[in-house]
Write a structure and sequence with these properties.
This protein is an alpha/beta fold and about 400 residues long. It has 14 helices and twelve strands. About 5% of the residues have low confidence.
Length: about 400
């Protein structure tokens, strides 16, 4: 309920009250029991409430019946999340994805918008104008859905072009995933100096951002910030965001950022794992990053439990910078490719070769005495030919 309240505030609402009902199974017509619905309707009238939000997905019929009872707008969890996404989308791709999810959510609910007009009667020539308008709207919505899907397919192909370039350069791709408001954008900013919008609100990031990160091992890594996940994330939204979430599926490593100070941290981890499984990214190499250690207020037992449960995990604070060097070291280990460990002798009059070696390799030892500069360095195998004229001996592969 706290999370639903946060979602409502993020959407621009002011929460004036909440309510619960324990029932064996949802009521087919009104989701909650009829008596409880009338009780809530009376409370809404007294408090002059204009919107009622349910923490579950309602059927079109349930939404229609509840709106009649409450005499105000009724939203389910899916509609609320879609509204937040619509507010936050900035790029054309993001807006297309949201519009697609909204239209797919709206399509089965169109009937309620034309309930005030005449309905179709039996027999030839007895078709009412409301039904005609409904059919027209359905066709328009379906046409728009088909057009957006075609445009998103173009976007998906365009995303493949930089991915091919990355693969040619042998650059690793790490995607930051995690529950909404876990601190993913703050972490990207801390690691790469990016200026991605970061705010203490749910779904502050919708459009993915990719930045280059150079690790202490001299590796180049492309780090991508992605949309946050949430429990009961609408399936239609996951489908609509397939083009964006492909960055997660194609990643070499996932950085699963967890707000370790949150009271429902276990449930949040499970929710993220469920979405990763839905998009086909489960089983990928994952580095657990336990963020917001500065907000634990001395409750170290929780952190210790998670660090023991997840080997090679890292505890950090993206805000204060605590633990960032350990994260970079762990990231370098997790992404370390097979490299050739070579001893090279480069004449002093070839400074360009020396500069290139420092740019692409990890120089372990250097000596500038004598006629040539001698280096022991680890370099990617695909660049070996470039340094072949200066090779003294191969030390090992590491």
């Amino acid at each position: 309920m706290d999370e639903l309240s946060e979602l409502a505030v993020t959407a621009g609402g002011e929460v004036v009250g909440d309510g619960l009902q324990k029932i064996q199974a949802p009521c087919a017509s009104t989701f909650i029991g009829r008596g409880k619905a009338e009780e809530f309707a009376e409370l809404c009238r007294k408090a002059e409430v204009d919107t009622v939000i349910f923490d579950d997905e309602l059927t079109p019929a349930q939404s229609r019946n509840l709106e009649k009872l409450f005499n105000c707008k009724v939203l389910d969890r899916t509609a609320l999340i879609l509204d937040i996404f619509a507010q936050r989308a900035r790029t054309r791709e993001g807006k297309l994805q949201i519009e697609l999810a909204q239209l797919q959510h709206l399509l089965p609910r169109l009937t309620r918008f034309w309930g005030h007009l005449s309905r179709q009667k039996g027999g030839i020539g007895m078709r009412g104008e409301g039904e005609t308008q409904l059919e027209t709207d359905r066709r328009r919505v379906q046409d728009r859905i088909a057009r957006i899907e075609r445009e998103l397919e173009v976007v998906r192909r365009q995303r493949g072009t930089p991915r091919q370039a990355r693969q040619r350069n042998h650059w690793a791709l790490a995607s930051i995933v995690g529950y909404t408001n876990a601190g993913k954008s703050t972490l990207l900013n801390a690691l790469t100096g990016a200026e991605v919008f970061a705010e203490n609100k749910l779904f502050a990031t919708l459009d993915p951002t990719t930045r280059r990160l150079r690790l202490p091992t001299n590796q180049n890594v492309l780090l991508t910030d992605t949309v946050g996940f949430i429990r009961k994330l609408p399936h239609g939204l996951v489908e609509a965001f397939k083009a964006t979430l492909e960055e997660v599926v194609q990643a070499d490593l996932l950085l699963h950022v967890v707000d370790v100070s949150h009271p429902q941290v276990d449930q949040q981890i499970r929710s993220v794992d469920a979405v990763l499984e839905e998009i086909g990214a489960d089983g990928k190499p994952t580095l657990m990053v336990f963020n917001k250690v500065d907000q634990l207020n001395g409750n170290q037992a929780t952190l210790t439990r998670f660090l023991e449960q997840y080997p090679n995990s890292v505890a950090i604070s993206a805000t204060t910078g605590e633990g960032i060097p350990a994260l970079l070291a762990q990231l370098g280990s997790a992404l370390r490719p097979i490299r050739d460990f070579l001893e090279l002798a480069v004449p002093h009059d070839r400074p360009g070769v020396i500069a290139r070696l420092h740019e692409v390799g990890q120089v372990v030892e250097r000596h500038y005495d004598g006629d040539t500069a001698r280096f022991k360095a680890r370099i990617p195998p695909h660049l070996r030919d470039e340094f072949a004229p200066f090779l003294v001996r191969q030390l090992q592969t590491a």
